[in-house]
Design brief:
With 39 residues, the chain is mainly alpha-helical. The protein is built from three helices and no strands. It has one domain.
Length: 39
């Protein structure tokens, strides 16, 4: 829980979290995968 909380604080909340997810998606080479999973 501490780790998750730190991450949210570091990235500035949900908005940045989505951005991070997008980056991870691109790095994985699965744009469709990320879109399908997170709408």
């Amino acid at each position: 829980m501490r780790r998750g909380r730190r991450e949210i604080d570091f990235y500035g909340g949900n908005g940045s979290a989505v951005f991070r997810i997008r980056i991870l998606s691109v790095l994985r080479g699965g744009e469709v995968y990320g879109t399908a999973r997170y709408g």
